[in-house]
Amino acid sequence: MKERELRKRCRKMLNKLDIEPPLDVGVLCERLGEQRGRPIRLMPYPLEVPGPFGCWIATGSADYIFFQQETTKSHQDHIILHELGHMLADHHPGGDAEPADFLRGPAPGLDGDAVHRALRRTSYDEAHEWEAETVATIILEWASVLNYTIPRRADDDDVRRVQGALGDHQGWL
After folding, report:
1. Domain contains 164
2. pLDDT tens for residues 48-99?
3. Distance separating alpha carbons of residues 166 and 66, to the nearest angstrom
4. Angstrom distance (rounded) from CA 10 to CA 90
5. pLDDT digits (tens, 9 = 90+) for 71-81
6. Sheet holding 40-45, edge to edge
7. 165 within a domain of the structure (yes/no)
8. Which domain does 109 fall in, by range?
9. Looking at the domain assignment, is residue 35 inside a domain?
């Protein structure tokens, strides 16, 4: 998929999910999970270094995103957005590694759910990894601009309507 198509998909998704700046990756996951009909569970985990920083595990009832807990919040957000990028780009985890191999034992928090598929990031040599990384970068670029240029949305409905009428916010870029 070309970058232009990825940008269109990202913009469409963010607008459809009614995600407002500042970007909250947890809220994005919650709303995307609702749209997909199964929750996205964020799982901080002390992944071995060197090794993958994140992993998307799809089960019959939920999607799990394991991410390196031993890094900064901004890096964690990027890892999570990369894994969401796989979902947005319609990648299907093919199981390039058994989750237990790099999660050192049974994957915690899966509540006995049978693992159907896993996709983890180890390099960007493959097209699907480039696409997922591009999605993460696009969302973070937009968020970095909008988080500082768009006034926060008012709680009061009347004030929010005035903000909408007078503001020049066009949604996600």
Report:
1. no
2. 887 778 888 888 889 999 999 999 999 999 999 999 988 887 777 654 445 4
3. 42
4. 12
5. 999 999 999 99
6. 40-45, 63-68, 54-59, 115-120
7. no
8. 3-153
9. yes
